[in-house]
Design a protein that fits this description.
- The protein has 282 residues and is an alpha+beta fold.
- Among the domains are: 92 residues; 87 residues, Alpha-Beta Plaits (2-Layer Sandwich).
- The strands form three sheets. The chain has a four-stranded antiparallel beta sheet. A four-stranded antiparallel beta sheet has the order 6-7-5-10. The chain has a two-stranded antiparallel sheet with strand order 8-9.
- A hairpin with a 2-residue loop joins strand 8 and strand 9.
- Helix 3 crosses helix 5.
Length: 282
């Protein structure tokens, strides 16, 4: 039986060798080669400048516009009476001592009442200075500048030095402000044009009459204007129609048509440097 198994094993070995020989004699099939990509059609010179069609851009969804807020009126206070004076160090000293100034004014007004019913007694709560150097008198709560204005000369004489040269009073009014953000002076290396020159430039080239609350002023310091060549100019009107006109039409300044935008006033109160009160600014 062992001999039979050996014979069978030899037979299988011979068959395996024969099969290997057959496989080795067969040619190996080459891997399929992908055809080379066809060259793009030659573009004629006539189409070199033709724009390439692009897919249409999808517009972003429309965002509802935020309505512009009304012109800020933070600096308008119906209780403020402006005393027109000639600025001087003496006036600054008097206003700095606000308590004494208030006492002097209220003493002078002690026996007076407002002309309107129910005729409240007149009085002030504080004093201050404007940026231009005029004096501000703040009416007591319940009163307005309309109540104090007929007695402005008495108020001024009660605490202001004679050198103040009191020249009348005015009630605080609304200012409608716009700013020219890119005003270019004729020669940035020279001193900036004055407020009078700016006002004349704005007025002379339009068929429109402006009601100025104050002359135009430069908001950008002269050194920065000289460095960058442009600056911002503030326009202050006493009439809202004037503001809407310049916002709609722009202005001409030194031969250039310039855009104008609404000025946003921070309206932050200036506290007293001595007692931090918001009733006065000095």
């Amino acid at each position: 039986m062992l001999l039979a198994q050996q014979a069978e094993l030899q037979k299988l070995t011979a068959e395996v060798r024969a099969l290997k020989g057959v496989l080795a004699s067969r040619p190996v099939a080459a891997a399929p080669v992908a055809p080379a990509p066809a060259a793009p059609p030659r573009t004629s010179k006539a189409t070199y400048a033709s724009p390439v069609a692009q897919p249409a851009a999808v517009a972003p969804p429309a965002v509802p516009g935020v309505p512009a807020t009304a012109t800020p009126r933070a600096r308008h206070d119906e209780g403020r009476l402006i005393l027109k004076v000639t600025p001087s160090p003496a006036i600054s000293r008097v206003v700095r001592n606000a308590t004494a100034a208030r006492t002097a004014i209220n003493t002078a007004l002690a026996n007076l009442t407002a002309a309107r019913a129910p005729h409240p007694r007149l009085g002030v709560s504080g004093v201050g200075l404007t940026r231009s150097g005029n004096v501000v008198v703040f009416a007591m709560p319940g009163l307005t500048a309309v109540d104090l204005e007929p007695h402005s000369a008495l108020i001024a004489s009660a605490f202001l030095p004679q050198e103040a040269a009191f020249a009348g009073a005015a009630r605080d009014s609304v200012w409608y402000k716009a700013v020219i953000p890119d005003a270019i002076p004729p020669d940035p290396s020279q001193p900036l044009p004055s407020s009078q020159v700016l006002q004349a430039e704005v007025e002379d080239y339009v068929q429109y009459r402006f009601s100025w609350a104050a002359p135009p002023i430069w908001l950008t310091p002269a050194g920065r204007v000289a460095e960058q060549g442009t600056g911002s100019v503030l326009l202050s009107f006493s009439c809202e129609e004037d503001l809407e006109y310049v916002l709609r039409n722009g202005v001409f300044l030194f031969g250039r048509a310039l855009r104008v935008r609404r000025f946003r006033d921070s309206g932050r109160p200036r506290p007293c440097s001595n007692c931090c009160s918001l009733e006065h600014s000095a």
